[in-house]
Design a protein that fits this description.
Structural class: alpha+beta
Number of domains: 3
Helix content: 40-55%
Strand order of the largest sheet: 3-2-1-6-7-9-8
Order of helices and strands: HHEEEEHHHEHEHEHHEEHHEEHHHH
Distance between the termini: 34 Å
Radius of gyration: 25 Å
Number of helices: 15
């Protein structure tokens, strides 16, 4: 629980190689356990699911004073709103390759003469990509934006033409010495394709960040056309100070109270019971959003899909997501005004933001770094990792722990139990002692009769069902 590695070595009386071996073992067991359980997801009826997707940045320290450049890492996570289950937590790092292997393959395949999208090694960063990105950033030298206060930042973002292009390397950053770094656009596209399984209807709430929307539409475009998937972009003023948040919250409460007072009174019918004040407040917020949607549709010059290019502000006060705006990207004129309002009101980044906050609090090496003004973009974190492989391992270990072992204080259940993947308690030893061979044997015996040709032998080995 946020103990740095050197403290663990001191308390447990082990060496660093032993500790690294144990972390690798736990990561392998967690990956096997989660893969065996999540293989059932495509065949499960999960009902209607509201998912939240965002990305988080990490810093890996430099290992030599001669090259004081940090390694930037990014991870994309998607969490289910109702259960809190983390469906995927994907870092932009591949430990199965080395930079030397990539460079050799890059030269042998002639990638230097090909456009980026046609290269054999387009997925990973090469030294040529790194040099070109640093040179481009040095030439352009865009001014650093001021504090993010909402509307000015939105205006700058809307003026950009490269919102689907992730940020590149800059001066003071470098590629990892172990493993290879994956381009952010390939990371987010792969992340959403990984989620393309099994759910009959789902709604995505994604941060208005570079590349997330294009990747989501690339994977779920067909389902958006079939109206079995909805996509809502959300933007909030994340970097408001505490005083600015309090002032904004007070102003929003006044405006919300005035908007509620302007709503037509609804009389309760015979047999209806009075609703709680909190629930009535949420219903009124949905009615206000529905009225905004109706007005936007009536005043829009577009013949169809009138909500795709407009941002709708949240009228209700929300201290966790100040100045929140929605953009209904998948609008196809198939939902009523009230249904659109309900969908927008359900769109929140709170589930995935909660995951990111837990990661920061519980894993010391991914804590937010302290920046040094004198060293420009170089940042140093005393507890940060020196090996990017550790970051990827610990994020996957955290995902499995969060989904299968951590019990919410609200209902005492794990995320896997709420999602329906677990029927009872899962203990640490179930994961650490997990044996994939027992799963294969059980599947083989389970499907032996239904796959039999009548001679006692299976026609299709059940082990193939794991792939």
């Amino acid at each position: 629980n946020k103990s740095p590695l050197n403290r663990i070595v001191e308390l447990c009386g082990v060496s660093f190689p032993t500790l690294y071996d144990k972390i690798a073992f736990i990561h392998r067991q967690c990956s096997l356990f989660a893969a065996s359980r999540e293989a059932r997801l495509p065949g499960m009826d999960l009902g209607r699911r509201h998912l939240s997707t965002d990305r988080q940045d990490y810093v890996v320290n430099w290992g030599s004073r001669a090259n004081r450049k940090t390694i930037p890492l990014t991870a994309v996570a998607t969490a289910d709103r109702e259960s809190g289950y983390i469906l995927a937590f994907s870092p932009n790092f591949d430990a199965s390759l080395t930079q030397d292997e990539v460079e050799a393959g890059w030269l042998a395949s002639g990638d230097a003469e090909k456009p980026p999208q046609l290269r054999d090694f387009a997925r990973v960063w090469t030294k040529a990509d790194d040099e070109a990105s640093v040179a481009k950033g040095t030439v352009e030298s865009p001014p650093m934006p001021g504090r993010r206060t909402g509307e000015p930042v939105v205006a700058r973002l809307q003026a950009r033409e490269d919102l689907d292009v992730p940020e590149g390397m800059v001066e003071g950053q470098r590629l990892p010495a172990r493993g290879v770094q994956v381009h952010a656009d390939y990371l987010v596209h792969g992340h959403f394709w990984l989620l393309l399984r099994g759910t009959a209807w789902l709604s995505f709430c994604i941060d208005a960040d570079s590349g997330l929307l294009a990747a989501c539409m690339g994977a779920f475009g067909a389902r958006v056309r079939d109206h079995t998937a909805e996509i809502v972009q959300v933007r909030i003023a994340k970097e408001l100070g505490i005083d600015e948040r309090r002032k904004d919250l007070a102003d929003t409460r006044k405006a919300f109270a005035a908007a509620r007072a302007a709503l037509p009174r609804r009389t309760e019918g015979p047999g209806e019971t009075a609703v709680a004040p909190g629930l009535q407040e949420q219903r009124d917020a949905t009615r206000i959003v529905a009225r905004m949607v109706r007005e936007l549709r009536a005043n829009s010059p577009a013949p169809t899909c009138k909500l795709r290019q407009v941002w709708i502000g949240n009228p209700a006060p929300d201290p966790a997501e100040p100045r929140k705006h929605w953009r209904y990207v998948s609008d196809g004129d198939h939902l009523s005004d009230h249904d659109v309002a309900f969908l927008l009101r359900m769109a929140t980044l709170a589930p995935v933001d909660k995951v990111f906050a837990m990661v920061r609090r519980r894993i010391a090496m991914v804590e937010r770094p302290v920046s040094s003004v004198r060293r420009a973009r170089r940042s140093w974190q005393i507890y940060a990792a020196y090996d990017p492989r550790m970051v990827g391992m610990l994020l996957e270990i955290f995902r499995v722990w969060h989904n299968w072992l951590w019990r919410s204080p609200k209902d005492g259940k794990t995320a896997a139990e709420r999602l329906g993947l677990a029927r009872g308690t899962v203990r640490e030893d179930h994961i650490l002692n997990f044996d994939l061979r027992s799963v294969v044997k059980r599947l083989w015996e389970q499907h032996a009769d239904e796959q039999s040709n009548g001679d006692g032998f299976t026609a299709v080995p059940a082990v193939n069902r794991l792939s």
